[in-house]
Amino acid sequence: LQYCASEGHLGLRKHIIEFLKAENIAVHDDDILITVGAQQALDLIGKIFIDKNDTILTESPSYVGALNAFLGYGAKIETVPLDNNGLQVNKLKEKLKTLKKKPKFLYSVPNFHNPAGVTMSKKRRHDLIELAEKEDLLIIEDNAYSMLGFNPDDKFPALRSLSEDVIYLGTFSKIFFAPGARLGWVVAPKAVLEKLLLAKQAADLCTGTLSQVITEEYLNLKPWRPRVKQMTKIYENKKDVMLGALEKYFPKDTSWTKPKGGFYIWVKLPYFVDTTQMLAEAINEKVAFVPGNNFYPDDDGKNFIRLSYCLPEAKEIEQGIKRLGQVVKSRIELYRSFKKYR
Ligand SMILES: Cc1ncc(COP(=O)(O)O)c(C=O)c1O
């Protein structure tokens, strides 16, 4: 078993070209760098772009693994809020006016956001590309959940399909339910890809050949579209179970997003509930969530929780949300009774 090319095993890059075609992204094999998951791509991007105290932009909330990768290189993170239609491009425009230093890039998860469960509208995608061109802003598009859309008629063009200047990240972790394979990829303009390749060589010479060859062979033997369709249907059913259970068991002063794909629901609790403090109680009831504050580079998000319906079975989802609803209710009641006697 030998090292493979630092760019990644050619046979696997050929398959990645096919996935990208499904996103209307036309690339050659030498436009792709295979990485140890999309997470390594985030780290390499941090390594080549960020000098200490450089400003970068992320959505708020944002994927915690990206925040940690960028913070690790000393980035100062400025945030732009999301709403139900994804990144608020008008707020990005305002934010750009207030920055003293030009940001190195904007990091965005346009599809089926982790943690927010929202998807950027088609109009906003076009607006974002237009703004980025005008302001010379580099965009990192993390499309980890691409193809996991529940409605095949929903068409959300990848940002990279709208502009070749966008750096695009993909992964086998979510679409093939194979995070243990540790395989992801980057598509980037030539000059950037060369720098990423040097950084990759310094980090680990190449991504593990065994995992790449096994994945290539799997894809040679099995057409991937039916598998993705089958998994997406399973996730959609679980999402419906979770949304139904939230309606049934969560108190009325709470709200949540309704994902069009992916794995996550983002739940807002009353402002006085600190979900990090609430986690221990939930674990006592044998149910877990990720406290919202983890997805912000600052103090925000304390009254949010991220729920994932990807792994548990439908019955477990129903049970888990029932127990969590009880924990939330008792937190709210506790606060109200303290307030009454203060
Ligand atoms: C948005 C996003 N990007 C990247 C990753 C990392 O994926 P990988 O397993 O390919 O490293 C994740 C994992 O949860 C993710 O949610």
TrEMBL record:
Its cofactor is pyridoxal 5'-phosphate. The keyword Zinc-finger does not apply. Residues 2-324 form the Aminotransferase class I/classII large domain. CDD domains: AAT_like. The keyword Transferase applies. SUPFAM superfamilies: PLP-dependent transferases. GO terms for biological process: alpha-amino acid metabolic process. Keywords: Aminotransferase, Pyridoxal phosphate, Transferase. GO terms for molecular function: pyridoxal phosphate binding; transaminase activity. It holds the Pfam family Aminotran_1_2. Homodimer. PANTHER family: AMINOTRANSFERASE, KYNURENINE_ALPHA-AMINOADIPATE AMINOTRANSFERASE, MITOCHONDRIAL. Belongs to the class-I pyridoxal-phosphate-dependent aminotransferase family. This is Aminotransferase class I/classII large domain-containing protein. It comes from marine sediment metagenome. The lineage of its organism: unclassified sequences, metagenomes, ecological metagenomes.
